[in-house]
Amino acid sequence: MSRSYVLGVAAAVFATFSWALNFLSPYMMGALGPIDFITLRFIVSGGIGLVMLRIYWPGDTVLSRRSILSAGLLGVLGYAVYIGCIMGSVLNGGAIIAPAFLSATPVIIAVAGNMIERTTTWSSLAVPIMLAVCGLVAANYGTLVGVLDNDLTSYLAAVSYAVGAVLTWLMFSILNQKMLAKIPRVHAGLWTGLMMVGAGLSVVVFVPFGLVLDMYTYPHLDLHLGNTLPVLAAAAALACVASVGGAWAWNFASQRLPMALSGQLISVETIFAVAFGLIAEQRLPTGLEVLGIVGLLAGASIAVRVMAQGNREGVKVQA
User: Fold this and answer.
1) Which of 5, 30, 264, 288 has the fewest CB atoms within 10 Å around its CB?
2) Model pTM?
């Protein structure tokens, strides 16, 4: 393997590790609400993004206005919106549901890609699809049973947020890889800075609307140094590592790895996310949860391998 390839894999794994820290957000926001915490976090991220633009902006820029705007919108989609969906799922359904759905992303990509352009037979995708479905059922079974006797609304909200996170991630990863392929000379630090500024501006613009709609918690709290400093520190830490660090590492990896491999590596986030979530909940996974996650990861791995083989052979399968 080339040095560039190895560095790309290492960067992608670091990105998945840093993004998995997002699953700790609901446990770190103290008395604040999720909208408050996201706003704090991305104001910090936007500030760091401005510093990065100051450092990496070239005298003769390689970016058009359209590319700059696209980078900012990708930051909104892949960070502010995505993390909002993650927090919503964890708050409503606990540590397992969102990672379980995210781990099925490579299978979803394989199915969608084969529907658009048949590069492999559906029978070759039958095993990963079956593993993904069974894995989701197993991983969600305990949570579903726990809410059937109570209010099903929270569980359905958690699933809805998880599906939103999957769709957001799919759109972000595909669009980001395509944009970087068109501008290979752009520095990963510059592209990351533009993303963070976009995400930061989005939360600032949202503040007046959130206040009018009473979506913020802080106006109703008795804020003082004791209950705000830990939350500010947590938001700043996540902004530095999970937002800026993760974005930089993923952009770096996206410039060096094919999408098939990066799609498989995103499954690693599931392992980190489940581990962090269970640590925060101070419990061990149930047998069904372990079985479900293993099934999902196996299905993702097989799906990526099948699609990669079909793309290498370059054969279009007749319907």
Assistant:
1) 5
2) 0.84
